[in-house]
Write a structure and sequence with these properties.
It contains five helices and two strands; from the N terminus they run ααβαβαα. It has 127 residues and is mainly α.
């Protein structure tokens, strides 16, 4: 190979690496890990940010829809967030097929009622 071909190939590989990095392929959660978790029958929804109720408490509801929750935390880089969004999108597609299209609104209603119960418990503690 001549020098121009080697340089061109190197630039292409670097650009592909940057693209994969930007879409979260080098973080824990990405498209490939979503497919792997689905194949292993262990889908998870990744929650980013501060949560009113813990993922363990949410799992009481989410397990009947066929997934568990993972709290990722508040400090997330852009590439990690891209990977998480791609991961969650693939899990949502899987859950739509499994539970039907309207499962998410029903799930969110149940989570909202659990959140309200927790808020009432907190208010009673401080009265």
């Amino acid at each position: 190979m001549n020098r121009k071909t080697i340089i061109f190939s190197g630039i292409i590989l670097i650009l592909i690496g940057i693209g994969l990095w930007n879409y979260g392929f080098f973080s824990r959660f990405n498209y490939l890990t979503a497919k792997s978790d689905i194949a292993n029958n262990s889908p998870q929804k990744i929650l980013v940010g501060e949560l009113m109720i813990s993922p363990i408490e949410m799992d009481e509801i989410s397990q009947k829809y066929g997934f568990t929750n993972i709290g990722f935390g508040c400090l997330v880089s852009g590439t990690e967030l891209n990977g998480i969004e791609i991961y969650n999108a693939e899990i949502d597609k899987y859950l739509d097929k499994k539970n039907g299209i309207d499962w998410k609104s029903e799930y969110l209603k149940e989570i909202d009622s659990l959140t309200k119960l927790k808020q009432q418990e907190w208010k009673k503690q401080f009265e």
